[in-house]
Amino acid sequence: MFAFTIRRLLFAIPTLLAISFIIFAILDLAPSDPTGNLPLTIPPEVRAQIRSSLGLDEPFPIRYALWLNQFFINEPLNMIEGWTGWTIGDGERLRVTSWATRSPVVDLIVERMPQTLWVVGMSQIIAILIAVPIGVISAYKQYSWFDQIGTFVSMLGFSIPTFFTGLVFIVLFSVHLKWFPSIYDTNHVIDSWSSFVFQIKQMIMPTMVLALATAAQLSRYMRASMLDNLQQDYVRTARAKGLSERVVVTIHVLRNSMIPVVTVIALNVPTIFGGAIITEQIFRVNGIGQLLIIGIQGADIPLVQTLTFIFAVLIVMFNLIADVLYGILDPRIRYE
């Protein structure tokens, strides 16, 4: 398993390099100009100086190499210095800088990341806690009223987009019932029990919007996988040995049924970040999804490049995590 993980990590390096080149090339070809929003009274020579200061007068290969050096070398070194307090080299190094704010892009992402992780992380946990029991019970009691209701609700959750669900939640629970706030207060500080309760209340709606969409998909995969395994010979053998139904279902069938579901869960995490882009806009969550929208609207190419590449890294990383979990869940799978 260790050797397989090392091989996959080494294989991920050229994969990520190819992805970074494609992202950089596509966004570099986009018709965007950092001086486009400046007043028309600024003379052309000043605009040319601004473009030169941003490195836009360099050839494409040079700009790509500089971005690679900034992202893969300078930014990790800067993070190590921030965590340890050490000074590596002279401490002065060129970083990926936002065109709009002139701030380092990684600092902007780190500032926004906790809000997104709170919403995305909690939604993923809630989705798994909802989907797995529903999928197991629906498969074990196939065609029962529980299965029929679960199928209907999951089809609704799978079909309705998150932006529509978010608007329905706001109208119902915020406008009419006034249970939860419609706008997420990013600056809220938890310093008492009442402030903690308010934090939970403002997290409920954006978290549940993402959780319901994810749970609808996971429950269908869980049900299909459970139905397939319930018909296998090892289940009949376990029952013939006198094992209780609870042990057969929860220990034997559930473990094998989780193998394909693990893939969906792992690959869903980057997708949840994509869904959070829309959800953060609806509930005004000041996270990386909103940061990406701001970067796109302002033609902030370094910011968009970095965020898009981080999403690609998440996909590659969670693919590797899913492959490793295969061997843990099913001892028959060997990578050596």
List key phrases describing it:
336 residues, mainly alpha, MetI-like fold, 2 domains, 11 helices
Layout of SSEs?
Elements: H1 2-28, H2 44-53, H3 60-84, H4 105-140, H5 145-159, H6 162-176, H7 193-230, H8 233-240, H9 245-283, H10 288-297, H11 301-329
Helix pairs in contact: 1-11, 4-5, 4-7, 4-9, 5-7, 6-7, 6-9, 7-9, 8-9, 9-10, 9-11, 10-11
Keywords: Cell membrane, Membrane, Transmembrane, Transmembrane helix, Transport
GO cellular component, one term: plasma membrane
Domain ABC transmembrane type-1: 113-322
Give the gist of this structure.
The protein is mostly helical and 336 residues long.
What can you see in these coordinates?
- The protein is mostly helical.
- The chain has 2 domains: 2-84, no CATH class; 107-329, MetI-like (MetI-like fold).
- The protein has helices at residues 2-28, 44-53, 60-84, 105-140, 145-159, 162-176, 193-230, 233-240, 245-283, 288-297, 301-329.
- The mean pLDDT is 79.
Structural class of the helices, strands and pairings? mainly alpha
Strand content: under 5%
DSSP strand tally: 0
Separate helix tally: 11
Question: Separation of termini?
Answer: 7 Å
Tally of individual domains: 2
Mean pLDDT: 79
CATH architecture term of the largest domain: Orthogonal Bundle
**Measured on Cα atoms, how large is the radius of gyration?**
24 Å
Give the topology string: H per helix, E per strand: HHHHHHHHHHH
The CATH topology of the largest domain turns out to be MetI-like fold
Give unreliable regions as ranges.
none
- CATH superfamily heading of the largest domain: MetI-like
- Major β-sheet profile: none
Helix content: over 70%
The dominant shape is: globular
Give the C-level CATH assignment of the largest domain: Mainly Alpha
